[in-house]
Design goal:
Oligomer: single chain
CATH class of the largest domain: Mainly Alpha
Number of domains: 3
CATH topology of the largest domain: Cytochrome Bc1 Complex, Chain D, domain 2
Order of helices and strands: HHHHHHHHHHH
Structural class: mainly alpha
Distance between the termini: 104 Å
CATH architecture of the largest domain: Orthogonal Bundle
Helix content: 55-70%
Largest sheet: none
Length: 237
């Protein structure tokens, strides 16, 4: 083999070694990316379950921002249409969490997604503070729903594994802001029933630790409608 042939051979050999090394490095990088992607959850449960502690806010900014909300939820957060929830008196932390969930796509509603698109985190906190400061109006339960609704709310249904609603939301439906359990009393029965049905079907899934989905999945249509009516008539004793 001539000297020139030796040079060509070693040059080609070196190129082959370099090519193999590059391919091995590329394979390692791709494999690492795929592994990490498989470990990544579809949804970040911390975003869903995180506790929101509102320590500062501008209630006047919340009032100004609420003018847009008034079209559906009323000027003071007491909606007239029963398909839209009353926001008056609701815990600021809970309202802010729902707004954040709508913006992040964790809670899905096309109309609300458009409404929150331009809101900052502070705007959402301010709205929460404004609505919390409003007095929620009371409703009345249908007389025929009171007995079953009260039983479910106060005692649950042990045969079906349904716990008492009051164990989390309180005897008067005041909720628990620290645990992110919403105030319920006076809420439109139609709205409450629609949300329980969505939890039952898994169409709404921003409940902490799957609590509401688990409970609603055991409830019958009759139980959902009765307890929703009872909640509409709840008030402070």
């Amino acid at each position: 083999m001539s000297q020139e042939q030796d040079k060509i051979f070693f040059r080609n050999f070196t190129l082959v070694i370099v090519f193999i090394a590059v391919m091995m490095i590329a394979f390692y990088i791709v494999a690492d990316l795929v592994t990490n992607k498989e470990k990544e959850p579809v949804k970040n449960e911390m975003n869903v379950n995180s506790v929101i502690n509102i320590t500062t806010g501008n209630i006047n900014n919340g009032k100004s921002l609420s003018q847009t909300c008034a079209v559906c939820h009323g000027p003071d957060g007491n909606s007239v249409n029963p398909i839209w929830p009353k926001l008056a008196g609701q815990h600021a932390s809970y309202t802010a969490k729902q707004l954040k969930n709508f913006k992040d796509g964790i809670r899905v509603n096309a109309q609300m997604a458009g409404m929150v698109a331009t809101l900052s985190e502070q705007d959402m906190n301010d709205l929460g503070l404004y609505f919390e400061a409003q007095k929620n109006s009371f409703g009345y339960a249908k007389p025929e729903s009171i007995n079953l609704g009260e039983k479910i709310y106060r005692a649950g249904h042990s045969e079906s594994g349904i716990p008492a609603c009051m164990s989390c939301h309180g005897p008067a439906g005041s909720g628990n802001p620290g645990a992110m359990y919403p105030l319920l009393r006076g809420q439109h029965a139609e709205y409450t029933a629609s949300q329980l049905k969505m939890f039952k079907k898994g169409e709404r899934n921003n409940d902490t630790n799957n609590v509401m989905r688990s409970i609603a999945s055991r409830m019958t249509k009759e139980q959902i409608e009765a307890v929703s009516e009872y909640i509409q008539g709840l008030r402070l004793q």
